[in-house]
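Recap from last week: sequence in, structure out.
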Amino acid sequence: MPKKSSGGGLTATQQAAKFLGVSVLAGAVLAGIALPAVGALGLAAKGSVESFDELPANLKTPPLSQRTTILDAEGDQIATVYSRDRTVVDLKNISPYLQKAIVAIEDSRFYQHGAVDLKGVLRALNKNAQSGGVSEGASTLTQQYVKNVFVEEAGDDPTKVAQATQQTIGRKIRELKYAIQVEEELGKKKILENYLNITFFGQQAYGVEAASQRYFSKHAKDLTLAESAMLAGIVQSPSRYDPVNDEAEAVKRRNVVLERMAEVGDVSRTEADKAKQAPLGLKVTQPKNGCITAVQGASFFCKYVERVFLSDPVFGKTKEERAKVWNQGGLTIRTTLEPQAQASVQDSLKDHVYKSDKVAAAATLVEPGTGKILAMGQSKPYGYGKNETEYNFSVNAAMGGSNFGFPTGSTFKPFVAAAALEQGKPPTQSYPAPYQMPYPQQVQTCSGKPWVNTNNETLENESESETGPYALKEAMELSVNTYFVEMLGDIGMCPVVKMTDALGVVQGNGDKVPEVPSSMTLGSTGLSPLTMASAYAAFASRGMYCTPVAIESITQTVGGVKKSLEVPKSTCSRAMSEKTADSVNTLLSGVTDSGTGKQAGLSGRANAGKTGTTDERKNAWFVGYTPNLSGAVWVGSASQKVKMTNISIGGTYHAQVYGGDTPGPIWRDAMTGALEGKEAPSFNLISIPSGEKDPKENDRGDNGRGNDDGNNGDSGFIGGLIDGGTTDGTSGGISLPDNLFQGQGNGSGGGRGRG
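Predicted structure tokens:
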């Protein structure tokens, strides 16, 4: 008489046995099921044969997720990223010892049975019935492989993982049917290879190659008998037998594997006993996952590459599709990062700004004519600790940057000059440029509705001695605020809008630069260093603007097969005539030669650039270029709360920070190192006659005003509105709350037009 459960029915184990008795298909189809003693029976209630037949015929095996390797332009590794650290290898590249060890301990009859081991399941059922629980399982390696496929397909979704591993007859039936299919289609050797590549070995290592590298810092093909036995032993319980955290338990388990190998004749008793006496011999390589591990301070560039992949439609129509490919991994991404340039940027930043300083610095180098990003770095390293940050100050918010970028100050003025030259203004254009003046009563916009100076707002130059008239060359070298506002009033804002659109100039949040005089002349709007470096690169390439790119090529390995993926290409278009670009290059060469950017000037090669400092000295910039390299450097506070007066930066005291004396030298040193050994082409300079004003009157070289950008942060509009344009903000203007435009200006200023 059958033994009854306390409720009067058969016990769960007996029910399972009865279930097996009525479910024999093709000579014991369900013989491999290791059944739970308690709990739901899944599909059993529906009738085992019918449920079995209703299952899809084919197991959809997802490609195994692997690590992705990110390389620089020369093919050297920057970083590896992965959702699962795995490198798929062929069976021939896996130690024979490991192959035998895993079979011996997990499924010693693997080569004798089919998808199901009938002897094993009967043995397990007998023991389970005696114990009243699940004291022994009977899954074959093939069934375990199928289960791992379900887990792999579930990814990092905890609900799907739970479903893939739940102890129900329903799951076991699915597992079994697919195991039969796999045995028919793949054969034993391929199943073993797949199993060894998919299985989790603990310590973030998936598959034998990653596990071998993690624990022994060697390839799987080179594993010894003792090492192989240890890895094979981990599979049953990666946490319990973790050799890193419990060496004694790992040794005990390894020896169990060795004993089993001797019992089944895979090794001799002497070999097994000798291996048992060997130390574990761990040579652990710590997991190195993610951009935080990138070399040469390239973590921010690495994250930028990841953001490009996850956002660009070339890698998938939806963000879900792109994320799936990224998480799948197996990618080898060759980037545009040039090691020499990157090292030079990092060295320069380290020399001039300490990570513990109250302010930070960011620098980006771009190749004119191609849009290739050659270097990207910042003074505060990537991370989550003190004096670290995960924000990439060089890029827009959508790519991991600050919310709105950083106000650029007078580095915006060359865009106004380029727009005016395109409109037909001569490079000798002169304006009265008084020390102080009201903004124009009205300025035309692209909409046709003019901006009107309803509040009688005024602006002024940095120094009372800066009184016109000035011609364009002198006004650019001295960065005369009133000159460029007069130029804007003359040509209107629409030509400047068209120019900035052609140069890819958008705010850090992706919006267009607002049609407000302070934004359109004095750089009160937040932009990113990458945006500025790319825009100035168009001057260097004689008017051709190229969208920035970070990826050269990508290959993906899936199932041992390599394929090339399409990558985003730079789009180059003419932003201005060659004549206009040559004129701007001539103007900006004067800035680094004898103007506000003298401290940034390079020796021995043609160079040009522009300084910028925003109101209250919360931001300082230098953006410059040679014919073959463009770079932008920003120094300031990400919170926009630090005024760079009476401040120490990189161990150097500054009574007042200027665009020329702080970001300028960073740019100079970064460019010098990046260009070392490279050709030194010349600009196509034009002849610009001197203006009416004697430049010597205002050129104070390396002291006082000569280090500024003529805006001191655009003390014009903001200064007139907030503090009367004084450098110390002591008087004048209209008082407004400090945070009025903090959102749109990244907290850089508080008045109208700053945002």
